[in-house]
């Protein structure tokens, strides 16, 4: 038997590495949008307008009224690991903003056509730039790639077009635009409920309906009324728990016994990030995985039990007062 000679090991081309990394962070349009929403909120915006075409595969556009981006930073904006939010590794323990590792815009620029228009308060005009593969790119071949001056209001508009145009296998995996839009609407709805003081608008391109529309002044309960419905908004009780032993603070709303819905909805935010699993955690290890959708945590059982206990007590009080009222 003849043993085959080992094949030589070679380094992958940087572009290939970046495309692979991008594909791990952004699997569906909703993941790109989540990063863009978090960036807009990080920038101190009080208004977010989202426009979606073909489930986000053709177009994802988010317009905010936040602090904007300095013109001088536009050249490195979409490089990997460029961020205004993290300077030292130690900052990871106290980071207050959503994103922090400077990978989102870089990733998007590797797998979509990305355009950024932005204006800071002290700039007399807005600046517009296109990106490809992490770098400034000319809008048309032969043109300069430098940002161009244009008219615009303070804030930032990010336009993502033709997502996965250069990742055909991923692109082919999408069955329906409406399925992708449903995921987007769900995610926008979560942030629209959570982000007090921020107005949200989300529209499907060409749709006559309002989509999601939440005014900045809406209370959390009103936000739930708008995004979900009155039936649930009217039957929510508040809970709040502060625990020194495990060092956590939690607050939320939970439906009482008067409400019975067909399906259970759980909107869970840890350190202001929408997360998927049933994890209520004091110190989230936000650095676990680039997607940050899964979270690890300490004392999970104890903390969940404490929160459940608190909710049970509060629900018990509501039921007692109801019984009391019917008897009187
Ligand atoms: P990160 O959020 O982890 O810093 P991103 O790639 O998401 O990385 O963004 C890179 C940087 O671009 C941010 O740190 C921020 O300075 C800037 N930025 C991105 N989006 C916005 C926005 N909507 N408004 C203002 N600045 C933004
Ligand atoms: Mg970010």
Q: How would you describe this structure to a colleague?
A:
This protein has 328 residues and is α+β, with helices and mostly antiparallel strands. It folds into 2 domains: 14-214, Histidine kinase-like ATPase, C-terminal domain (Heat Shock Protein 90, 2-Layer Sandwich); 228-327, Ribosomal Protein S5, domain 2 (2-Layer Sandwich). The protein is built from 8 helices and 13 strands. It has helices spanning 14-25, 29-42, 104-111, 168-172, 177-194, 220-227, 230-233, 300-327; strands at residues 47-53, 59-64, 113-119, 126-132, 135-137, 148-150, 155-161, 199-204, 212-214, 236-243, 248-255, 269-270, 273-274. Strands 1, 2, 3, 4, 5, 6, 7, 8 and 9 form a 9-stranded mixed beta sheet that branches. A two-stranded antiparallel ribbon has the order 10-11. The protein has a two-stranded antiparallel sheet with strand order 12-13. The longest helix is centred in the C-terminal third of the chain and has 28 residues, at 300-327. The radius of gyration is 23 Å and the shape is globular. This is DNA mismatch repair protein Mlh1. Keywords: DNA damage, DNA repair, Nucleus. Belongs to the DNA mismatch repair MutL/HexB family.
